[in-house]
Amino acid sequence: APAAETGPMRGSSALLQGLAVGVAAAAAFVAAHAAYARRARAAPEDALAEDDATEDAAECEPAVRMIRDHVSKKHPQGLAVELVMLDDVRIESVFMFEVAHLSAYAPKAGRRNKMDLGKDDGGYSREYNQLLGAQDAILQDIVRSPGGDTISTAFLRAGPRSELHFEPSRVRAAIVTAGGLCPGLNNIIQGLVRTLISLYGVEKVYGVRGGYGGFAEAPIELTLERVVGLQNKGGTMIGSGRGSFDLAKTIGFLKQHRISQLYVVGGDGTHRAANKIADEARRLKLNIAVCGVPKTIDNDIDLLDRSFGFSTAVEEAQAAILSAQTEARCNLPNGIGIVKLMGRHSGFIAVHATMCSGEVDLCLVPEVPVVTEGPLGILPHLERVLERKGHAVIVVAEGAGEEIFGTSAVLDAGGNRKLPELGLWLKDQIVAYMQARGKVATVKYVDPSYMIRSVPANASDSIYCELLAQNVVHGAMAGYTAFSVGMRNNRLVYIPINAMVKKSPRQMDAHGQTWERVLSITRQPNTVPPKEAKAPQAPAPPP
Fold first, then answer.
1. What's residue 5's pLDDT?
2. Which of 98, 182, 245, 249 has its CA 20 to 30 A from that of 175?
């Protein structure tokens, strides 16, 4: 390519049919580009000699060929667009979150992995379309900026492996669901049972009744017949429960029933207990895979794109918001509807339900301080809304307003703090505020909290649950332990439990784009304190 085109390497970029992700190709291309850029900076473009241009083109040719070959596999017909090299955006090193493996102390069955479809019903075996290895990864940090970090962390990609750690016909698996209800729990149970029996042909699958307390009792056997139609029912067929965790009884249960795979479905507290089980099993050198499926209707487990059931909860909340909006619109004058939604530590359900509805005038979440009066007060804001449209709709997350009521010292059986009723308190505050100004307000309070978590999963969550169930079984069969399965950057991955629960429950970023979108809909005052500016970094010392 002529050296005097629009800029260094611009001519060569026209040869690129796509973007290389291979480290070797990227490194070669970056090195060639850097060498050319150095020469281009050393002399004006029109002063570059023709032999320099030829040398640069020859230097870049292997990298360009590698990139073109890579893209041709993904896009055989080409991309019909020119790609431009980003000078200052690159990844040089990737570090993966390590997932524990039972082969560290227990012998592997060493059996090749195949799809044993319907083996229990005269089925057949076939090869998987794709088998993954120990270094198949999904990058965690996909957003890149000029001058940013050149390293990234990554998660182990979920999916079937070429070699099985367990002999499937000897596997006895147990499933336990703990914590509060969530749409999709029955889908997870059904998916686990189907994958274990139909795909791998395990010996038995047990259901532990009523959460961790069920390890002190006899389990029920789960068969394909027992889970037929389960996806259409809310709740969990094996029951759930909070607290009652006893490590000694749990290990005793696993030994007594010869369990080799334990599937734990629950939130961050449930996973912390699961990690203790995995640690104890490894300490005792028990050949038991302990695996988790993250469950939280609040979507507050760290490191995940989203948790199953969240989409259904947001969808179900729309009926409550619409009901509140109808009540507010029809109760004259100055009708107001307040909807309380779940969200103990984070307001993800409230903010997504607000964005989905488009009818909400005020959204209160734990991450954002509640200010009642003054320039940023919610009460003056509601008065303005009533003057403008005659009615108002408010969505309140259950954990909002702690700065008003203080932190409760009362805990429930699961160790969660008892939360104050901000919505009911706000109802009284609104009425008093309007009366003090000689106005009347009719306030209706709607609490659909338990309704949105006890319904069957919607289509989106049903598919997600099936993916989670299949992939957690693949991980257990391969011998991984002390991990949970989840979606990261729209790909299924295995996440070490201790990493996942380290910062759980997570919260919405009040300085992020999600909250800005809410403000654009509700037009409420923003009470988020300004973000602290980062201290300027000292300049690097001269070489």
1. 39
2. 98
